[in-house]
Design a protein that fits this description.
314 residues; alpha/beta; Alpha-Beta Plaits; 3 domains; four-stranded parallel beta sheet; 15 strands; globular
């Protein structure tokens, strides 16, 4: 990661540049910044979601190389974000429907007061040093993501808390005394933001040696070859690509638009799968009334596609 926009690597492909970013910083003027930021994104035809709060900024955006460069330059022109870092990947089609700049209480919601990564945080570990750390028998590796994300990929040997939301993570830590059995805790997440806040929480809970993967899984998959990698599976991403693999290539997963769970090619062959209506994960949880409502939505999506439009429910 660098502090300036860089030319996309020649081995990447796809018409659209995707930039994932976050930055913890004191940002008391966040509310007044929402509208100007929305305007800059719209003017440059950039789409995605950016969350801004008193504690900083977080989000993912996509657009042309020039459009993304313009938005990043605008952000870095702000004194709060002059050291903003981002991670790049590419998409073959626009992975977002619209641009949303949202005001939030937290840029990643843990729900614990006074957790400030600018005050106390774990030790950053570069992707090239990550394998050695998590292979150390004195290290406990923890995935801080949610269950639908961990379902399609994990680092080898990682503990999966199986949380539904990040809000559940603090209680999971408090209820697992065995986490103190090893001297080192290594944590990771998609892009770095959740594990950065999680390490701050762990330090507050009295854990001494707490580490986290700098740049998250995305940076690891970008920099570490598949031959050297200790990553198994694919990495869930919060856009229409659904997943990425080594080299940040688009994965094979699609999304169930009924329950938002990632689906493998094998899942699509199940008799429980009906596009936009149900899948192997949610079929038993839905009533026939639910499924009929989803079928109507799917019919509207198909009609919009036939007209050459894109239905917002797709």
């Amino acid at each position: 990661m660098t502090d300036t926009f860089t030319t996309p690597r020649p081995e990447t492909h796809g018409q659209y540049l995707v930039a994932a970013l976050y930055h913890f910083v004191s940002f008391p003027r966040f509310a007044e910044f929402r509208e100007p930021l929305q305007i800059v994104c719209d003017e440059n035809r950039v789409k995605g979601t950016l969350l801004i709060a008193r504690e900083g900024i977080n989000g993912t955006i996509a657009g042309t190389d020039e459009g993304i460069a313009a938005v990043l330059a605008y952000l870095r022109a702000q004194p709060e974000f002059d050291r903003l870092e981002h991670k790049e990947s590419r998409a073959s089609s626009m992975p977002f429907l619209r641009m949303k700049v949202r005001l939030k209480k937290e840029i990643v919601t843990m729900g614990v007061d006074n957790i400030d990564p600018n005050r106390v945080v774990g030790t950053y570990v570069e992707p090239r040093d990550w394998n050695a750390l998590i292979s150390d028998p004195d290290t406990l590796v923890i995935d801080t993501r949610n269950d639908y994300e961990t379902a399609i990929g994990l680092f080898r040997g990682a503990v999966d808390p199986k949380t539904k939301t990040f809000r559940e993570f603090p209680d999971w830590v408090r209820n697992h005394s065995g986490l103190h059995n090893k001297p080192k805790i290594a944590m990771y997440c998609t892009g770095g933001i959740r594990c950065e806040k999680a390490t701050a929480f762990m330090k507050e809970q009295g854990f001494d040696e707490v580490y986290h993967l700098k740049g998250g899984i995305l940076k690891y998959l970008e920099e570490i070859s598949s031959e050297e990698s200790l990553w198994e599976g694919a990495c869930f991403v919060f856009d229409e690509r659904v997943s990425v693999t080594h080299g940040l290539q688009e994965g094979e997963h699609t999304l169930c638009h009924a329950c938002r769970q990632p689906l493998t090619p094998e899942d699509l062959l199940s008799p429980l799968h009906e596009e936009g209506v149900s899948c192997v994960h949610c079929h038993e949880e839905r009533s026939e009334e639910d499924r009929e409502r989803y079928r109507e939505r799917q019919r509207q999506i198909a009609l919009a596609k036939k007209r050459g439009d894109r239905h917002l429910g797709s």
